[in-house]
Amino acid sequence: MIAKLRGLLDSTGIDHAVIDVGGVGYLVGASSRTLAALGPVGEAVTIHTEMLVAEDSIRLVGFARADERDWYRLLTHVQGVGSRVALAILSALEPAELHRAVATGDKAMVARANGVGPKLAQRIVNELKDKIGAAPAGGPIGVGGAVAMPVGNMSTDALSALQNLGFKPAEASAAVAAAEGELGEGASLDALVRLALRKAAK
């Protein structure tokens, strides 16, 4: 699992950047907010990443800040919110704004993002409201700007991988839990995902 890249900004596009790490160029999808925060081409950058594993491809999505990545993970666990829509939301709203919108039930704020209609905005608010805690008064979310939810651990990454392959949240969660129980705490993410895939496919 690639969690972070540090290198030189090689180039940027409308929805992606290329990060040169030791002569290898990594294509990273990103929100307009993240792309704007990276700075000029040729400069050193550090970008937090989420790896999307599909049957026929592996893609990276990048974020200027870790809390943006945390919100991306939360958003993509909502039914109907894929990577493109999640990035559109993060382009329109910074994490603190999104936190306040969800916590206060402000679906109109969420619907400002391209591709997000009123029904989807309402679903996002409904599904995430109980997971994020109270709305921040302003500034960072929780400690160090992190979403008040355990993210970034092995099971979360495995769950994300299965859902990106098309498994429903309940199916993915059950498969990952079963795989964790069988493999124990010392298992690698790769082994966990492979076993969870076999269990989910049964």
UniProtKB/TrEMBL annotation:
Superkingdom per UniProt: Bacteria
InterPro entries referenced in this protein's UniProt entry, alphabetically: DNA_helicase_Holl-junc_RuvA_I, Hlx-hairpin-Hlx_DNA-bd_motif, NA-bd_OB-fold, RuvA, RuvA_2-like, RuvA_C, RuvA_C_sf
UniProt keyword Disulfide bond, yes or no: no
Subunit structure: Homotetramer. Forms an RuvA(8)-RuvB(12)-Holliday junction (HJ) complex. HJ DNA is sandwiched between 2 RuvA tetramers; dsDNA enters through RuvA and exits via RuvB. An RuvB hexamer assembles on each DNA strand where it exits the tetramer. Each RuvB hexamer is contacted by two RuvA subunits (via domain III) on 2 adjacent RuvB subunits; this complex drives branch migration. In the full resolvosome a probable DNA-RuvA(4)-RuvB(12)-RuvC(2) complex forms which resolves the HJ.
Domain Helix-hairpin-helix DNA-binding motif class: residue ranges: 73-92, 108-127
Identification of the protein by name: Holliday junction branch migration complex subunit RuvA
Location in the cell: Cytoplasm
Similarity field: Belongs to the RuvA family.
Functional summary from the UniProt entry: The RuvA-RuvB-RuvC complex processes Holliday junction (HJ) DNA during genetic recombination and DNA repair, while the RuvA-RuvB complex plays an important role in the rescue of blocked DNA replication forks via replication fork reversal (RFR). RuvA specifically binds to HJ cruciform DNA, conferring on it an open structure. The RuvB hexamer acts as an ATP-dependent pump, pulling dsDNA into and through the RuvAB complex. HJ branch migration allows RuvC to scan DNA until it finds its consensus sequence, where it cleaves and resolves the cruciform DNA.
Spans annotated as Domain III: 154-202
Pfam families hit by this protein: HHH_5, RuvA_C, RuvA_N
SMART domains: HhH1 (SM00278)
Ranges where the record places region Domain I: 1-64
Key words, A-Z: Cytoplasm, DNA damage, DNA recombination, DNA repair, DNA-binding
Domain notes: Has three domains with a flexible linker between the domains II and III and assumes an 'L' shape. Domain III is highly mobile and contacts RuvB.
Keyword Cytoplasm annotated: yes
